[in-house]
Structures are given as structure tokens and as C-alpha cells.
Design a protein that fits this description.
Distance between the termini: 36 Å
Strand order of the largest sheet: 4-3-7-8
Oligomer: single chain
Number of helices: 3
Structural class: alpha+beta
Helix content: 10-25%
Number of strands: 8
Length: 165
């Protein structure tokens, strides 16, 4: 779009302006804290974490930083289980709330929760959603850096370099 009636800091802007992706409004760390604390306060959650990185290649689309695959280890999970096996959705000990596609409304529909403790599942789900939601990208990037695997325990947070393709 050519626009000769724009200005930036009082200077006229001329030429073609190609709009990029609209970013989600960022939320402050203070809004993430209660979600994190609710999971930390749960005596059955041993540790949890996620991976965050900017992809190196994305099929021609812009490569953008994001957080991925939140996982949770409870005191009943196998301590040798991979974090990939402990991701939030279809978790072995937290349970799950399956979704199904409704062709008539063209939306996902939540089915009833299946598992041992729905309140615990909701606390973990809320934190996982916040981590994967792009609204905290700046906070997470500033706190833990790019290409990082984060593990949170009651006594601290460990950040390791995350190797990915």
C-alpha cells in the first residue's frame, strides 16, 4: 500500500508499506506468576517445563520465537519418562479433556474431563495455555533466552540450551 500521508516521529514516510503479522498484545510477568505459583504449590507436581526457541527454518514463512510443549511430572509418573511423554495433553497421570471436531459448527468441542483430579489438571492446563499463548513471549524470551529448555522445580529453575532442527 503506497501512502504519502504517514509520518514517523514527525518525518514524512513515502513508499510501499507491507504489513507484517499482527502480534498479540504482550502481558506482564505479574500475570503469569499466579498460574506458575498454583502449580508450584501443588505437592504432587515434582517438576515441569517447556522448550522455547526460534525455528531455524519454517518453509518460507518468517521464523518467530515461541514457547512449546509444556510438560509436567507428578509424583506418580515414572521418573525416567521423557518430557515428551509428559506433555500436557493426554498426560499419563494428570488426565485429559479430549476435544472433538464438530463439523456442523466447525469448532472444537470439549468432552468431559477424564482423570483422577480435575482441579490439578485445570491448574496445569491454565499454565500450559499461558506458556503456549504468544501473550507471554517477550517475558519468556527475556527471562530464559532463545533456544532454551526450561525445567522448574520447587527449589529453582534450570535453563539448558535446546538443540533443535
Amino acid at each position: 500500500m503506497t501512502n504519502e500521508h504517514r509520518s514517523f516521529l514527525g518525518l514524512p514516510v513515502k513508499g510501499d508499506i507491507i504489513r507484517g503479522r499482527n502480534r498479540v498484545d504482550q502481558r506482564p510477568l505479574e500475570e503469569l506468576q499466579p498460574l506458575l505459583q498454583a502449580v508450584l504449590d501443588d505437592p504432587t507436581i515434582v517438576e515441569f517445563g517447556w522448550r522455547q526457541y526460534t525455528p531455524y527454518f519454517n518453509d518460507g514463512e518468517p521464523c518467530e520465537f515461541s514457547a512449546h510443549a509444556p510438560w509436567f511430572r507428578t509424583d506418580t509418573d515414572d521418573e525416567d519418562a521423557s518430557t515428551w511423554d509428559l506433555e500436557m495433553y493426554d498426560h499419563p497421570s494428570l488426565g485429559d479433556q479430549p476435544r472433538s471436531w464438530d463439523n456442523a459448527t466447525r469448532t472444537y468441542v470439549d468432552r468431559p474431563y477424564e482423570g483422577p483430579d480435575e482441579a490439578r489438571y485445570r491448574r496445569c492446563h491454565d499454565l500450559a495455555s499461558a506458556i503456549e499463548n504468544t501473550a507471554f513471549e517477550n517475558v519468556l524470551l527475556q527471562a530464559f533466552g532463545d533456544h532454551a529448555e526450561i525445567t522448574v522445580r520447587k527449589d529453582g529453575i534450570e535453563v539448558e540450551t535446546y538443540e533443535h532442527e
